[in-house]
Amino acid sequence: MDPKTHDLIIVDNGNGDEPLSNHSNNPTFAAILEKRLSRRDVLRGSLSVAVVGMFGASLVGCNSSSSSDPAPTPSQPSLLGFSAIPVSDADDVRVPSGYSYQVLIPWGEPITGNFPPFDPLTNTGADQGSQVGSHHDGMHFFPIEGQDPYEGSSVEGLLVLNHEYVEPRYMHASAVGKSLSRNAFPVQADGTRAADEILTEMNGHGVSIVRVTKQSNGQWAVVADARNRRITALTPMELSGPVRGSDLVKTKYSPNGTRTRGTLNNCAHGVTPWNTYLTCEENWAGYFVNRGERPREHARYGVSTRGARYGWDLADNGADEYVRFDVTAKAASAAEDYRNEPNAQGWIVEIDPFAPDSTPVKRTALGRFAHEGMVFQPPVEGQPVVGYSGDDAINEYIYKFVSAQPYFKATAGGHLLDSGTLYVAKFNADGTGEWLPLVFGTGPLSPIPDNQGDPESPGQIGFASQADVLVNTRLAADVVGATKMDRPEWGAVDPKTGRVYFTLTNNTARTADQVDAANPRPNSRWGHIIRWEEGGGNPTATTFNWDIFILAGPPEDSQFDGQPLTADQFFNSPDGLWFDKDSRLWIQTDISESVMNTGDFAQFGNNQMLACDPVNKDLRRFLTGPLGQEITGVITTPDQKTMFMNVQHPGATTSPDEFAAGNLKGTWPHNARYGRSATVVITKDDGGVIGT
Ligand code: FEO
Ligand code: CA
Ligand code: CA
């Protein structure tokens, strides 16, 4: 069949700019702010109201009594020892003087099976299943001993990383010479899609587990190992926790609602204290299409009524594993069709990288939303496990999970994530905050007889069970009155203070009427970083104190420690965030492909990574990436002398016409036909700790 090309994509999800699907009318905090501040103050000075303090006096009056603040005066030299680098719009990776890097495991690198060599124009869908996936994102280096996620070998380990999505035009011979956007895919003349192209795309998603080693020449390399593994959009998975067995997850594939196939749009990650990997499902909703009436568990998450992101439901072989992405109710019962297929996505999935035959487990007690990642407080023997996860979509929320069972190192495991309390954050204008429990039967999270609920009228929303609360986590958060945030991305916990930092990447949909103390800028193009300290320093507390750590942006519209960001510091759209064990904070940026290197965004150059010493208020640009990409994913070896970080979607700003002409805008790392997402391995030339 003569392939023709259609750009079926109506919503551009390729850059992570999620559509607004929170139409709830639980208030933003504009009203609260107006009680405390004149309207003029709010509008005049986003800077003057934004940096409220949990750590001192502020314009909005903080009464923090925290006693665990570190000394406000630095008592140690800065953690940063490198010279900041300038912004860059070159098609390469740049690191400070005295540092070097190599490229490792680009998309398509063979790691398992029959190790098929990478050739995007001849590789089959099955080949992609033995190769590294595309669009590298969250990542962890597990020392090869398999005992502790942060201790052990610094020269040998399992690198585990997410593959958030794919760029179909790079994957198929049928795309060559066609005018295709970064989100478009080839469609055949009869409107179907070639099944093997779909298999390639599904196998390009998921997670890679790959053994890597530092060779005698100092370069890192892939090692063949029985634990090398691809987990994809097809891998069988178990559902655990309160939603397991619920009517809401019964499908033709799993009539008893205990299993599903695949994980989608794996963005950031988490690392459990018991040495397993969590992969987090972010913009999964767009992969489905419901051509009929959408139930609330579809509508509130933005499941499309017009077409699925990659048209996997259009497979020309009609295979069950592909057509399940059409989630229109078609049969007499849910156990006979795929109306509930989207309800098995939106979770956090636990994977044991050291058990290659293990089945990944979706931990439903952690809630269902557009999970960015999950970050834990350091575990304390005999205390609950506490972790945080953000819902990266416009005006969505930040959540905290507190396990029901205490942590004991000797017995810890995934069961700790199956029962506990999921809370959602409410940020008050006075610098305090509350964790609101999402527990069936408490407060408004109760049944309303004969009314399943109207997502646009939170007062009318009822819930039938804890499974219902969790499948509809966003609605539950709406009705308890959580604070709508500017797209929560990664979180990070300072290992020395327990303070939690979260990036709020941007939110151009926030109007002047909707600003609040925690999200202080209307039309927020640059984003900010918020942080909090749990009440009394206790991670299980239901109150906290917060402030804004950095307002990102150009020097004239930014703030860090009361000062504008300098030429060595300015950035926008913070996304990746990670504390190393010295409490160095690493900040990564994701300027959308739709605006990067254009207009007011041109001054920022390509996406970048910075390092920060929060105590000394030292912030320096550490790395700039190539054209068209975002920087995401970062971890070091236990000795902190090797850093792994990811470059995702290089060359994605290539226009359809440029693609058709073979004139790509960005071909990092190999200057070959196409760019390839890849891991970058960074070392210091003197063998020292990264960042010093
Ligand atoms: Fe996948 Fe929110 O970044
Ligand atoms: Ca991200
Ligand atoms: Ca992002």
Please tag this protein with its features.
692 residues; mainly beta; Neuraminidase; disordered N terminus; binds MU-OXO-diiron; binds calcium ion
Note down, in words, how this protein is organized:
The protein contains 10 helices and 33 strands. It has one domain (3-684): TolB, C-terminal domain (Neuraminidase), CATH 2.120.10.30. The longest helix has 10 residues, at 195-204. It has 692 residues and is mainly beta. Helices cover 9% and strands 26% of the residues. Strands 15, 16, 18, 19, 20, 22, 23, 24, 25 and 26 form a 10-stranded antiparallel β-sheet that branches. The protein has a 6-stranded mixed β-sheet with strand order 10-9-14-13-12-11, with no helix packed on it. Strands 3, 4, 6, 7 and 8 form a 5-stranded antiparallel β-sheet that branches. It starts with a strand and ends in an 8-residue tail after the last strand. Residues 1-5, 7-17, 29-53 and 56-72 have low confidence and may be disordered. A hairpin with a 6-residue loop joins strand 22 (488-493) and strand 23 (500-504). It binds MU-OXO-diiron and calcium ion (2 copies). One calcium ion binds next to strand 11.
